[in-house]
Write the structure tokens for this entry.
Amino acid sequence: MSKKETRFKVIHADGSQIKDEGSRQILLDIETGVNYLVWKSGYAGGITPLLDSDGKVIVTRPDMQDRF
């Protein structure tokens, strides 16, 4: 990756920092393909890998990453 590229790409975002619900984003790690859920509200927040119904980490294949 060149210096101008970033490792993570926001592929979905909703919510608002202004409201109590906070904001949610799904990030894609373009090196590993792992998808993460990020939640932020005020000074609090968290990050966790997204899991499918079997409890396995959701991984986006490299050939599917350019659709985001």
